[in-house]
Every structure is written in structure tokens, then in C-alpha cells.
Design goal:
Chains A, B: GO terms for molecular function: DNA-binding transcription factor activity; transcription cis-regulatory region binding. Two copies of one chain form a homodimer. By secondary structure, chain A is of the alpha/beta class. Helices cover 45% and strands 17% of the residues of chain A. The first copy, chain A, has three domains: 2-67, Orthogonal Bundle (434 Repressor (Amino-terminal Domain)), CATH 1.10.260; 72-172 and 308-333, Rossmann fold, CATH 3.40.50.2300; 175-304, Response regulator (Rossmann fold), CATH 3.40.50. In chain A, the strands form two sheets. In chain A, strands 2-1-3-4-5-11 form a six-stranded parallel beta sheet, with helices on both faces. In chain A, 52% of the residues are buried. The structure holds a DNA duplex.
DNA sequence: GGCCGTAGTGGGCGCGCTCCCAAATCGCTC
DNA sequence: GAGCGATTTGGGAGCGCGCCCACTACGGCC
């Protein structure tokens, strides 16, 4: 019996059904739906009514098939350790990205990659051009995922960079100035033996923060001593361990700049165990200004990174890159800010 | 000039190109790709070689168009306030979901909904059947988003429930027993004036946790007094405020069970301001066992929810529901566990 | 030797859409 | 009133794939 036009498959109305109801051709409906020019007001209105009446929603797969655009971007999080859980940093990034995308037709795909298998799946996924662009955070220097992304030639934006010559577009925070400001603050407090706990050596941010530390000391006329530098991996445990080492190597240490809040938390724990008062005996500054910084005892002075803004900027950059593929290589550096609380 | 088969659009090989190279028909290639039976070893091997040589990856849009499946599920987070940022709970859920999906062909779409506009977009999105199923967390009793999802008839699983008669499938943690265990612990410590700070009244979990509090008190032969019950909204600020009220209404309070860690943090702050020692004067228990619980001073006793496992269970349930749509209404309750630290 | 399975195979059809071109219509000008 | 460009319109073609049906081969059976 008279099965109406476009009423075959899922029962959802098609372009054709709308066209029939509006008494126009498919082309016209398509033009209206896509906001293209060259449609008479009469036709447009007829189509709009038909769309409303039928509750028409374009089929994305069909559109995608012909335009060969995916209408989606991926946010890749290389989920080493259990960082996603403990790093509100990522959550903020996600927020920023999502908010920037919200008046776009683009979908946000979240892709967590930790195992080798997942990496391979990601490769197939990108090769299949299932997304129009890629956002990636927490990249290490020789990150295989980043290299994978680079190979695909897809528009991509990194949060953070792998080196000073990062070939991909990226958004980063001003780690140098942030670290510098933190250490300068410590020096300004009259501290003489200022130590630092760095991040993982294969991350650019670690090196840059260390450099900021160096410069601030040099400017203050203080020596940069190897025994005042300990290495961590951004985790709480590594911070505790590193602080213990520092105390052993230089008992007279009176301040420490940690390249992450989590490490600062660990450091504070080590200090407490060693019966040092914070900040009287040892002043502590962290980096990230994550929520945990407000809850330490005493509340932690930390370098704020505008993480949500970072997410937004990343999304913006990617959008531009997708729109104008030939576009030149770009980067954005967001400024940081020292939030002074009671630990230093 | 001889433009090779399937070499028109994006330059990526198509089924047809693979078929040509392997010297078979499209149907056979399709069968191999989809692991269907009824392909001779000879043909299969030829096709596999051709696929490898060409680096063929199926075009998802085309497949999607004909199967009318989206190959994706959505994780919807109604992002009231700035909870995503501060709630590692969500991050764990995401982790769990992603890990459960990782050996599936399904994509995870993250959808944050806060404004009315975004809600409308979501409606169109779901109506467009752009996903095969929906996961949703943090649902309030009269959540318009949940109702929207319910209307679409899409397979859906909630994290938490809206009422005891939740019509949608859901995964929840055992709030009743969790709260009960917490309060029982406080009573076991000899506390006589045990207060509670509840979550937002329009969330089922709040009511259930309060009920757990009630039962534990009753079992201990203690009266449940209105002045010992204050209401918050899970946020830190609300916890601080509620604790202040409690202290005013009943200065003799010697313990407080908070329905979230964040509120417990706020409560601890209020207690400190009122010069009460924790736990000597007032014992404090939180709920969630979020990372922040380990960093309070003193470290907080809290009820652990298996949030990552919740995410996994949600995904599992949804997968089943997608596979077998007629399936009956199901729910999973995950058990909680009291983690005793120093605050109680 | 003819007949009927059964496993394997090829390819037409259509999913819903955008692209594009030819056709229709309109409004002016001379 | 004819002519011409500009605007608007309809609909064919084809995106890459899964579904399905017709067809071929190959045995084994009576």
C-alpha cells in the first residue's frame, strides 16, 4: 500500500520527503538546509514549514559520504598511568574544547590511548579519516601517538609542544615565565637555597620550567647547583621521593619549586616527615594551580595555567586549520599567573 | 587517462579497488572485511593481501548509511556548575567507559550539556540517530535531558537513578549501605551527636544517603533529629555553609557525615574556623573517596564508590541493550566501601 | 549419466545526501 | 515586444558500502 516517499527504512523523513511536502525539488531543500544562497523567500518558507512538520533531521552519514568530511574532531589523551583521573587539568581542557565547539556542527570524540593495541586502532581510525582534525594533550618528546598523527597529515593541534621546533600547531602556556615568576617569588621571600623538582625529562614543559628556575636564580645572583635539582615525573609519589633526595643532598634547602602541584603535594609530605615547617623552614610552590592546591595544609602557592582557555584556543586553532588547510604553522602561548597562598 | 578504479575522490582505496586487485567481486571483499562466513581460503587470502597492499580502510559513513547504525555512543554530562572540573568522579567514569569500549568498533562521543541551546542541539542530535545509545551521569530528578533521552527511545543507561522506580536502565553504587557504614563507623567511635550534610534534594542519591544515616542512627538507638541534618548541593562552599549552620544549631555536634567529599572539605574548613579539632572534637566522613580526600588535613575517611567500575558496567549494559533491544529493564548496584583515614 | 544439493561468488540495487548542470523563470533594457 | 543576463529550480549522477539474489562449480547420490 502507498508507502509514502522516503518512508522506507528507519521511518525517518528524508530530504525527498520534505521536498515532496513542500512541493519543491530536492536541490532546493538541500539549499535551505545548508543555508545556501539562491532560494526564493517563497520556496524557503515552504521548505522550512515542511521541515518543521516532518521533524526532518539530515542524515549525517549520507552527507558525510558525499562531502567526505567526518564532522567530528578527536581529542586524544595518551593515558599513561592514571593521570586522567587525578589531573583536573584534562577535565578543564575538555571543557574548553567542548565550549568552543558548541556552536559548530562538529562532534567531539574522546579517545584515550594507553595500550599498544589502542594505538593501532587509533592509526586505522585516523587513516580512515573518521575525523576532520585532531587535538592532543600531554605529549612526550618521542610520543608515538604524536608521530602517528603527524604522519596522517590531518589538521592537528597540540596542547603543549614536544620541542622548541614543534612542527605541529600548538597551544602552550608560558612555562618559562611561570616558573621564573615562581622562583623569583621565592627569592623575593629571602630564600637562599632554592631547590626544584622537575617533570619528566622527555617533556618539553619540564625543561622549560627548569630553565625558568635557572634564570630566576641567575638574575638573583644565586648559583644554580646540581644538588638542588631533583627529577620527578609529575606524580605525587615522585615528588615525595625527589624531596627526600633533596633534603638528603642539601639539608639547608629553604624553598622548593615543583613543576606540578601533585609533586608539590608529595614534597610537602616528605617535608612534614622530615619535620620541616611549611613555609617557615621550607617554602613550597607548585605548578598548575589544580584544585588540590587549595586543600593542602597549608594551602599551596602555585602557578596557574589557564587550562580551560587552552582547550578553547586549541579548538579555535584547529577549526581554522580545518577551514583553511593551507594555513601556515601557528602557535599560541598563554600566559600564566602566580597564585600566592600560604605555602610560600 | 586511466584513472584507476576507486581513485576518484579522496584517493583512498575503496572496496571496489580491493576487489579489482584481488581479482574477486565486491561481495567477496565485503565478506572478508566483515568476517562473514562462506569465503574460500583462496579468495580470503587474496583479498587480505590486496587490503594490506592498498592499505584499505572501510569508509564508515558509507557503511553507516546502509546499515543505519552510527557506530558510536554518547556520554552525556549535564554540566551544571563547574562540576566536571572538580569532580574526578566523572573522569573515572569516562575511563571506565572508554576501557570497556576499547575492543569494540564503537566511538565514544562526549557531550557536555549546560545551556538550553545545547540541550536543543542534543535533541536534534539524538533525533538524528547519530548515536546508537546514550550514557548519562549525574541525573537530577526532573532532569530535562534525561527526559529527552527517554523520549527518543534510544538505548540508554544512567549512572545513578532518578528515583527508586527509575524506568531507564541504570548503574548505581550502594548509597544506602555506604552511608549506613559511614555513620555506623562514627557511632562505633562513640560519637553521640552525629550530624549529616546532605546532597541536593532533587537527586536520588542524596535521599538514599540520608536514609542510610537514619537507619544507622536508629540501629544504634540514637534519635534522628532535624537540627542535626543540614542540606548542601555537593559543592565545597555548600558544605562549609552547612557545617556552620550545624554548629550554630547544635554546638555539641561531635561527628558529621557528608554526602560528598567536596562538602566534607568545606565542612572541615568551617570546623577549623570554629576551632574544633578533627577528629578529636568532631569526626568527619565524606563520600566518593575522591583524590582530594587523601590530601586534606587530616586525611579524610570516606566512602569509596567504584566509579571506574561504574563506567565499565554502564558501557557493558548499554552494549547489551544495543545488541538485544527488546531486553528487559536492568539495573546494577555496585557496592561501596568505607576507607578509614584520620578524620574519623 | 542425469539430478539435486551446497559452498562460493559476482554484481545490481539502494541507503540519503550534495554537486552540478541544464532548464525555467524573472526582470530589464533598447 | 523581442532579447539577454541574472536568478531560481529540478533532478540526474554518484559518494562507498551492505544486502540479497541469481548464478557457477563441485560433489555425491540414485
Amino acid at each position: 500500500m502507498g508507502s509514502r516517499l522516503g518512508d522506507r527504512g528507519t521511518g525517518r523523513p528524508t530530504l525527498e520527503a520534505v521536498a515532496a511536502l513542500a512541493g519543491v525539488g530536492r536541490g532546493t531543500v538541500s539549499r535551505v538546509v545548508n543555508g545556501a544562497a539562491g532560494v526564493s523567500p517563497r520556496a524557503r518558507s515552504a521548505v522550512e514549514h515542511a521541515i518543521a512538520e516532518l521533524g526532518y533531521v539530515p542524515n549525517r552519514a549520507a552527507r558525510s559520504l558525499v562531502t567526505s568530511k567526518a564532522d567530528a574532531i578527536a581529542l586524544i589523551i595518551p593515558e599513561t598511568e592514571t593521570r586522567l583521573a587525578s589531573e583536573p587539568f584534562f577535565a578543564s581542557i575538555i571543557r574548553g574544547v567542548a565550549s568552543e565547539l558548541s556552536d559548530t556542527e562538529l562532534q567531539l570524540l574522546l579517545i584515550l590511548v594507553s595500550t599498544q593495541r589502542e594505538r593501532e586502532r587509533l592509526a586505522g581510525f585516523l587513516d580512515g579519516r573518521r575525523v576532520d582534525g585532531v587535538l592532543m594533550v600531554s605529549v612526550h618528546a618521542d610520543d608515538p601517538v604524536a608521530e602517528l598523527v603527524e604522519r596522517t597529515g590531518l589538521p592537528a593541534v597540540l596542547g603543549g609542544r614536544r620541542s622548541e621546533m614543534e612542527p605541529l600547531n600548538y597551544v602552550d602556556s608560558d612555562n618559562l615565565r611561570g616558573a621564573w615568576a615562581a622562583v623569583r617569588h621565592l627569592v623575593g621571600l629571602g630564600r637562599q637555597r632554592v631547590a626544584t623538582i622537575t617533570g619528566p625529562p622527555d617533556m618539553e614543559a619540564s625543561g622549560v620550567r627548569l630553565e625558568g628556575y635557572r634564570r630566576a636564580l641567575e638574575e638573583a645572583g644565586l648559583a644554580v647547583e646540581a644538588k638542588l635539582i631533583a627529577h620527578g615525573d609529575f606524580s605525587e609519589a615522585s615528588g615525595e621521593q625527589a624531596m627526600a633526595e633533596l633534603l638528603e643532598r642539601e639539608p639547608a634547602v629553604d624553598a622548593v619549586f615543583c613543576a606540578s602541584d601533585l609533586m608539590a603535594v608529595g614534597a610537602m609530605r616528605a617535608l612534614r616527615r622530615a619535620d620541616r615547617r611549611i613555609p617557615q623552614d621550607v617554602a613550597v610552590v607548585g605548578f598548575d594551580d589544580s584544585p588540590v592546591a587549595r586543600h593542602t595544609e597549608p594551602p599551596m602557592t602555585s602557578v596557574r595555567q589557564p587550562s580551560e582557555e587552552m582547550g578553547r584556543a586549541m579548538a579555535r586553532l584547529l577549526l581554522e586549520d580545518i577551514a583553511t588547510p593551507g594555513r601556515s604553522h601557528r602557535q599560541i602561548i598563554l600566559s600564566t599567573e602566580l597564585v600566592v597562598r600560604e605555602s610560600a
